[in-house]
Amino acid sequence: MKTILVLTMILLATECRAQNSISDQNSKIQRALIRGIEETNRLNAVKAEEARKKAEVAQQIAQQRQEALRKVCAAAENAGKSLYGVHPDLNDAGGGLFGKPVASYKVGDWGYSPNIINVVNVINEDTLLVYLQNDALDSQIESATFMILKGFDTSKVTTDTRFFLFHPVTITRTQTYNTVGGTTKTVVVLDRDDAFIDAQLAPVKKARADARAKYEAFRKIIPPADATGAAVYDFFPEADRARLIQDWKNEDAAIKQAVEFHLTKLKNMKGAGRTQQEKELAKYRSGLTRNKRNNPPYLKKVD
After folding, report:
1. 129 near 148, Cβ under 8 Å?
2. Apex CA 23: angle with CA 17 and CA 28, to 5°?
3. pLDDT in tens, 151-200
4. Does residue 278 sit in the same domain as residue 231?
5. Looking at residue 181, what is its pLDDT?
6. What is the CA radius of gyration of the chain?
7. Is residue 213 part of a domain?
8. What burial class does residue 175 get, using C-beta atoms within 10 Å of its C-beta: 0-12 exposed, 13-18 middle, 19+ buried?
9. Which of 35, 196, 207, 223 sits CB 3.0–4.6 Å from 227 for a disulfide?
10. Do both 161 and 232 map to the same domain?
11. Do 110 and 167 belong to one domain?
């Protein structure tokens, strides 16, 4: 009996040691897991901070570039307006040059170039050797595209003058000149040709004049007081109804978008700023109500 008791106690002791060993192992595993989680969190925090700093630097660089670009463009704009003014129909005179990479300018193109013109040399009283770049802040001459600008008074222009030319030009020819290095270079010529530009713009100007006349005629149409919504256009020429209804729907969507925009801004605003946003929101909501009734009818303005 004594022997059995001893054996039982030994077995219990062994089991306890085994349980303690398992418990110790579990504790070690738990501690290791906790350390792993803490290390992962630490590394994630480091990466997040690095990403934040990187984004902050990128934003600062972008802001600095934007400010530098603003200054360069403002100076070029002032110079261009001072030198040659602004063509009265510039908005219609983009032609094929507007938005086109300067290296792609070719014979047959015409229009307004939105790139800064950099003067290399004043050739005579109406001719300049210039270069253009797609990026106004680009200082690498290798990326420049050289051209001849002809037809504009050069009496107030000097080498290194930079300006926007707010006039459309035509490209109908090329010209070859001798470089400082003793070689020759052939470039396109940007010519001032007011007669050609006027001919290109005549159809556009006529279409706008016709649209204005139609707009003024439509303003004189007064639908019955009880007509609302799309029904007010029943009293307009049938050929124009579909367009008028679509214009009205587009305006309705634009006002609704403005309402949502101001509602979103209001969520985190307080004080005077919130008061102003509330006024703006009230204005657009009132406009939405008027537009829904649509009497007097909405008519898209003609520029």
Report:
1. yes
2. 125
3. 999 999 999 999 999 999 999 999 998 888 889 999 999 999 999 999 99
4. yes
5. 82
6. 37
7. no
8. middle
9. 223
10. no
11. yes
Torsions phi, psi for 110 (to 5 deg): -155, 165
Nearest to residue 294, comparing CAs of 262, 241, 251, 242?
Answer: 251
267 CB-side CA count, 13 A = 6
| CA 36 – CA 215 distance, rounded (Å) | 72
Residue 168's nearest CA partner among 132, 131, 198, 148 is: 198
Q: Give 301's contacts (C-beta < 8 A, 6+ positions apart).
A: 215
Residue 121 lies in a domain: yes
- pLDDT, tens digit (0-9, with 9 covering 90-100), for 225-284: 999 999 999 999 999 999 999 999 999 999 999 999 989 888 877 777 788 888 889 999
Number of separate helices (H) and strands (E) present in the chain: 4, 8
pLDDT digits (tens, 9 = 90+) for 195-239: 999 999 999 999 999 999 999 999 999 999 999 999 999 999 999
